[in-house]
Amino acid sequence: MARIPPLDYDAALPNARAAHDQHQRDIGRITNMKRTLLHSVPAFHALMEWYPLRDTVRPFLGERLTHLFAHAVSTETDCLICSTFFRRLLVESGEDPDALVLSETDRTVTEFGRQLGRDAHGVSNELYAALERLYSPEQIVALTTFGAIMLATNVFNNALRVELDGYLEPYLAGAPPSNAAQGSGASKTGRPAGAR
Description:
By secondary structure, the chain is mainly alpha-helical. It has a domain at 49-184: AhpD-like, CATH 1.20.1290. The chain has helices at 14-26, 32-37, 41-47, 50-61, 63-76, 80-92, 104-118, 125-134, 137-160. It is globular, with a radius of gyration of 17 Å.
């Protein structure tokens, strides 16, 4: 059960309603996580910086590896909402999240994401050297910060026990396949508008 109920739009202060409406226009779905964050508009704006960071790393990672990285971070922290959201994107793109085929680059980037989720002190010199062979300092800074804000959303969801949005239930690990989970009629934009 959620520790803080999602904000009721009708009872929200004007600044929270304005943030809600702007986000809905620009990004899309307002999820349980976002409605919980809207109790504090500065907190909402801080975590919504996820979107510009995602848009910064996607050009050099590509759509698939961006999703794999965010999934790796979120599964390592056992964040039900975020890991299920990225399972959804992987399933809808035709992947099996439980049997991913990864290139050497994919393995390096996802291992970096998992290590950020486990313990950032544990990023070994070997792992960093592999990352450094693939990306520039500017790209590594953006990727690390994207991972850090992904972690922040994981921490928020886990600590406050934000409830999973109903539309994600068919994508839970171990859930039986359904038409929804096979992507029929589902959006494939990859926009985490419906994410969290």
